[in-house]
């Protein structure tokens, strides 16, 4: 597994000059607004760098918008973006990643994606961790949603985070998805990064 983060300080032209696009990708890019174009280009540039190969691996999306390498069925990937940052993950098994810059609104919406037993787990941590932990649960469940890859998940009903460890900078947990006749446990890893005035929480799952 290789996970990379990038803070975008470059113009579109920097990434376009290093990123040969397929016809499908060019059409997708043309539909995006200026900010999303930059994040889209940067995330795919970072994914290419994360693969460690000289020639970019052809990338596509399945019917559920999950990215995959056309010529490398045994190499999995995931992408994320947040407020001028991008993240990219590659792994030899199904995976997901998510990044989230800390935002003031998160406590107000936390009950939409955090279960009661998860709020109880958060209450067991020092009070000064709580704001970050709301973001951690969001990134955890987003990464699991991406790994699942079939959409149609209720973050409270179908996704549960347990055995959470967090020291304020790094952490781990078990993520479980359970829906209809499907269930699977994933290993989660977390981290925190600071760049100037921004603080970011990231999560990866396998």
What does this entry look like structurally?
- The protein folds into 2 domains: 92 residues, 4'-phosphopantetheinyl transferase domain (Ribosomal Protein L22, Chain A), CATH 3.90.470.20; 108 residues, 4'-phosphopantetheinyl transferase domain (Ribosomal Protein L22, Chain A, Alpha-Beta Complex).
- Helix content is 30%, strand content 35%.
- The chain is built from 6 helices and 10 strands.
- The strands form 3 sheets. The chain has a 5-stranded antiparallel sheet with strand order 6-10-9-8-7, with helices on one face. A 3-stranded antiparallel sheet has the order 1-5-4, with helices on one face.
- Strand 7 and strand 8 form a beta hairpin.
The main β sheet shows up as: 5 strands, antiparallel
Report low-confidence residues grouped into runs of 5 or more. Answer: none
What structural category do the secondary elements indicate?
alpha+beta
Structural domains: how many: 2
Which strand order does the major sheet show? 6-10-9-8-7
* Strand count: 10
Shape call: globular
What's the CATH C level of the largest domain?
Alpha Beta
Rg, Cα atoms, Å: 17 Å
**Helix amount:** 25-40%
Average pLDDT metric:
98
| N-to-C SSE string, H for helix and E for strand | EHHHEEEEEHHHEEEE
Count of helix runs: 6
- The CATH topology of the largest domain corresponds to Ribosomal Protein L22, Chain A
What's the gist of this structure?
This protein is α+β, with helices and mostly antiparallel strands. Helices cover 30% and strands 35% of the residues. It contains six helices and ten strands.
């Amino acid at each position: 597994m290789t996970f990379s983060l990038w803070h975008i300080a470059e113009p579109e032209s920097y990434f376009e000059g290093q990123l040969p696009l397929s016809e499908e990708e060019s059409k997708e890019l043309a539909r995006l607004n200026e900010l999303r174009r930059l994040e889209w280009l940067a995330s795919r540039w970072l994914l290419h760098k994360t693969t460690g190969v000289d020639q970019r691996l052809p990338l596509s999306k399945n019917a559920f918008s999950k990215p995959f390498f056309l010529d490398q069925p045994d190499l999995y990937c995931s992408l994320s973006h947040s407020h001028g940052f991008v993240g990219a993950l590659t792994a030899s098994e199904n995976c997901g990643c998510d990044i989230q810059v800390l935002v003031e609104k998160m406590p107000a919406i936390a009950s939409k994606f955090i279960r009661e037993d998860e709020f109880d787990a958060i209450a067991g941590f020092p009070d000064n961790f709580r704001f970050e932990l709301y973001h951690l649960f969001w990134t955890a469940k987003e990464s699991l949603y991406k790994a699942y890859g079939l959409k149609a998940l209720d973050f409270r009903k179908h996704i549960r985070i347990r055995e959470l460890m967090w020291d304020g900078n790094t952490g781990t947990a078990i993520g479980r998805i359970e829906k209809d006749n499907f269930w699977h446990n994933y290993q989660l890893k977390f981290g925190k990064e600071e760049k100037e005035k921004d603080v970011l929480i990231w999560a990866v799952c396998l």
